[in-house]
From TrEMBL:
It is found in: Golgi apparatus membrane. Pathway: Protein modification; protein glycosylation. Residues 100-123, 150-177 are annotated as: Disordered. This is Galactosylgalactosylxylosylprotein 3-beta-glucuronosyltransferase. SUPFAM superfamilies: Nucleotide-diphospho-sugar transferases. Mn(2+) binds at residue 333. The chain crosses the membrane at residues 35-53. The active site is at residue 416. Belongs to the glycosyltransferase 43 family. It catalyses: 3-O-(beta-D-galactosyl-(1->3)-beta-D-galactosyl-(1->4)-beta-D-xylosyl)-L-seryl-[protein] + UDP-alpha-D-glucuronate = 3-O-(beta-D-GlcA-(1->3)-beta-D-Gal-(1->3)-beta-D-Gal-(1->4)-beta-D-Xyl)-L-seryl-[protein] + UDP + H(+). The lineage of its organism: Eukaryota, Metazoa, Ecdysozoa, Arthropoda, Hexapoda. CDD domains: GlcAT-I. It comes from the Eukaryota. Its EC number is 2.4.1.135. It comes from Drosophila simulans (Fruit fly). The gene is Dsim\GD12815.
Length: 477
């Protein structure tokens, strides 16, 4: 074919292949370039238009139904949870979060919050009630976690359950919350049996005949919303001015992670309604418990085993209530990239990864050579077998349960080491290396500046002002 004949679309490569070279010799160079460009743009446009048309006519291919099969961080997006997406229950965009959305709508119905509030913390109680809408959404999410099925407790302090059958009985100083495991079971039953739910679910999780018939494609990819293995996040906390700020920051990080139960365990003799209120408002499924540090450690002038009784209480809870998934100790003041949660879900025994901002070395990390764990990098080794930070490892629930005596020692500086040793036998080769084989930093041991306790409010001067309310929200020793 000779240059100049551009009638056929198929000549694109032919033109470039030299047919036009002869013509170019007779034309000015500028004109020739202009012509090439015009032809190139035109043909590209036509191809694009044709391709778009082709795509819009193509029904779902079965292979596009992806189950959670990978751990890559790009996949996290499909698990991202946001209240906005939940509110958009009927929008096609939201079908990605379909199971969440559907169970939300159905489980809200049986919820009958009963809030009894008296005395000075009345406003807190009311706010708990008012904030229940957001929590209920997460309740329904928790209700779909398989391991909650067998729970039937009474008298335990329940977070996610609490929002379901909320009964807040208030004394003059404390708001006590009781919940029954029954509520969860009921929620579960509702989620599972409602015809509407299952119909909606199946419509959302499988490409149905109507999808095929209409030939419409409402979004580029489709992700089936079966839940990934559950995560149990054990967070020790204690009373101090920064407490609610720390929990708020961590809580909203955890809110981006599905199928997660947050075990918030306070080093105290009784729960604090302000903490309960904060957890309710965040809306992550939680259990709020107490586990005071034994008196003998509290009295000591030496370093205290901080958060140990709390973490051991968390382990006890898991031995009783959990069957699968993964546990992670997340101190309330640290910083976490949510991709680490998606990576730790799938581990079989123990996993480790680097933690930033630890000691003079700036990071604490396993040392990897040729894909193998060969040692540990940490500013303080201290004769430890596992010189790692609390934020740098996770353990599978099944593995924990195979080690009935595993727990954390009340030994300052040796908490991590003692706990990991108590998981023996554990081969180094069995330790999974996350965060890009320990080449990335996804958790940081951050510390918040300590604040002096707030001074007392001048109640005479600020009588009948908002400050009377705010003052009740401050955590004082
Ligand atoms: C470091 C480690 O990361 C902790 O896991 C370890 O328990 C602690 O050292 C230790 O060796 O004692 P660090 O940042 O120094 O942590 O300690 P904190 O953040 O003050 O406490 C760790 C956790 O325990 C926090 O979640 C905190 O809320 C809780 N905690 C602290 C208590 O429950 N009670 C306390 O009296 C102090
Ligand atoms: Mn800390």
């Amino acid at each position: 074919m000779k240059g100049g004949n551009y009638t056929s679309l198929g000549t694109y490569s032919g033109i470039n292949a030299g047919g036009n070279v002869a013509v170019a010799g007779k034309m000015s160079l500028g004109k020739s370039i202009k012509m090439y460009l015009t032809i190139f743009i035109l043909t590209t446009c036509i191809y694009m238009a044709l391709y778009q048309y082709h795509i819009s006519r193509e029904p779902f291919a079965a292979s596009e139904v992806v189950k959670h099969q990978e751990k890559s961080s790009s996949y996290i997006a499909s698990y991202l949870w946001s209240p906005i997406s939940l509110l958009m229950a009927n929008s096609s965009f939201n079908t990605i979060n379909n199971s969440t959305t559907t169970s939300t709508t159905t489980t809200t119905a049986p919820t009958t919050p009963t809030t009894t509030t008296t005395g000075t913390v009345g406003s807190v109680g009311q706010k708990v009630g008012a904030s229940s809408t957001s929590s209920i959404r997460m309740v329904s999410l928790a209700a779909t976690i398989p391991s909650f099925k067998s729970e039937s407790r009474s008298g335990s302090l329940g977070g996610h359950q609490k929002t379901a059958t909320m009964k807040t009985s208030t004394t003059t100083t404390t708001t006590r919350t009781t919940a029954s495991g029954l509520a969860t079971t009921k929620l579960l039953a509702t989620t599972r049996t409602t015809a509407k739910t299952s119909a909606k679910l199946s419509a959302a999780t499988t490409p149905t005949a109507s999808h095929m018939e209409n030939g419409h494609k409402t979004r580029p990819t489709f992700v089936a919303a079966s839940l990934p293995p559950p995560l149990y996040i054990i967070t020790p906390t204690y009373r101090r001015p920064e407490q609610l700020a720390e929990l708020t920051r961590l809580g909203y990080t955890l809110k981006h992670v599905v199928n997660l139960l947050w075990l918030v365990i306070e080093d105290a003799n009784k729960t604090n309604p302000l903490v309960g209120h904060t957890l309710d408002r965040i809306g992550v499924p939680y259990e709020y418990m107490v586990a005071p540090m034994p008196e003998k450690y509290k009295q000591t002038k030496k370093a205290k085993p901080r958060g140990v009784s709390n973490r051991n209480r968390g382990l006890e809870y898991l031995r009783e209530h959990a069957t699968e998934g993964v546990l992670y100790f997340a101190d309330d003041d640290n910083t976490y990239d949510i991709s680490i949660f998606e990576q730790m879900r799938y581990i079989s025994k123990v996993a480790m990864w680097p933690v930033g901002l630890v000691t003079k070395t700036g990071v604490s990390s396993p040392i990897i050579q040729a894909g193998k764990l060969v040692g540990y990098y940490d500013g303080w080794i201290g004769g430890r077998k596992y010189p790692v930070d609390m934020a740098g490892f996770a353990v599978s629930v099944k593995f924990l349960k195979e080690r009935p005596n595993a727990q954390m020692p009340f030994k300052p500086g040796y908490e991590e080491d003692g706990f990991l040793r108590s998981l023996a036998p554990l081969d180094d080769a069995e330790i999974e290396l996350l965060a890009d084989e320990c080449r990335d930093i996804l958790t940081w041991h951050t510390q918040t500046k300590k604040n002096a306790p707030a001074q007392a409010l001048n109640r005479t001067r600020y009588k009948n002002t908002n400050l009377e309310h705010i003052d009740r929200l401050l955590v004082r020793p």
